[in-house]
Structures are given as structure tokens and as C-alpha cells.
Amino acid sequence: MSLLFDHNLSPRLVQNLKDHFSGALHVRDLELRRADDIEVWRVAAERGLTIVSKDSDFHQLSLYHGPPPKVRWIRSGNCSTSIIEDLLRGNHEEISRFLENPEAAFLSLG
Asked: C-alpha distances in angstroms, 42 versus 23, 25, 29, 78?
């Protein structure tokens, strides 16, 4: 299962994290620049992607609908891309376990 970075995260994360999360995409890569949360949710579910976002709406969607898709909510507030990159790198093992668990729907980081 690959990652899909939401609008509110830098597209640079795809390149910067390819050593840990190969196959990661940004919504721009899927021409979802103007898509609303429901459309991003639908595409992620269809493609087997895990949404990574700072948007609490995806947390609500995961509680209401359950997986797929899985959601990783970055709760570190207003911070730099390098801090988010460090957070994802530092939690790589936890994220991998989350992705491998078919019952897990949501993971909060930050």
C-alpha cells in the first residue's frame, strides 16, 4: 500500500521520502489538485492508497466509513516540510505495521 499526500502537504515529500516510502504520490500526481476530500478519498480507496494529511476531515471520514482507504493524520500543526519528513522517517516502523494491519483504519502522528 502506497501513500497519497494531500493538498496541505508539500509535493517534495514524494521525492524526499522515496527511500522509505517508494511509490508515494501527491494529489497533484493524480490530477487531483482541485479535488475535494470526498474525491481524494474515493481515488485513494480505488487505488489502494493511504491518505497522509493534516486535514482533520479525513479523520472524520475514516471514523464514519472505515477503510479503505487508510488515513495517517499529521497533527503537528503549522510546521515545515522538513519537520513532517522527519516525523514520517522517525515513525517508519510504526507506519509499516499500520499499513500491514488490515483492520487498522487510522493513525495519528505528531
From this structure: 19, 15, 15, 27
- Of 87, 109, 110, 106, the closest CA to residue 41 belongs to 106
C-alpha span between 1 and 16 (Å, rounded): 18
User: Domain range spanning residue 33?
Assistant: 2-109
DSSP-derived 3-state class of residue 49 = strand
Residue count of the chain = 110
Domains in the chain, number: 1
What digits encode the pLDDT tens for the residues 13-54? 999 999 999 999 999 999 999 999 999 999 999 999 999 999
Predicted model pTM: 0.93
Sequence letter at residue 95: I
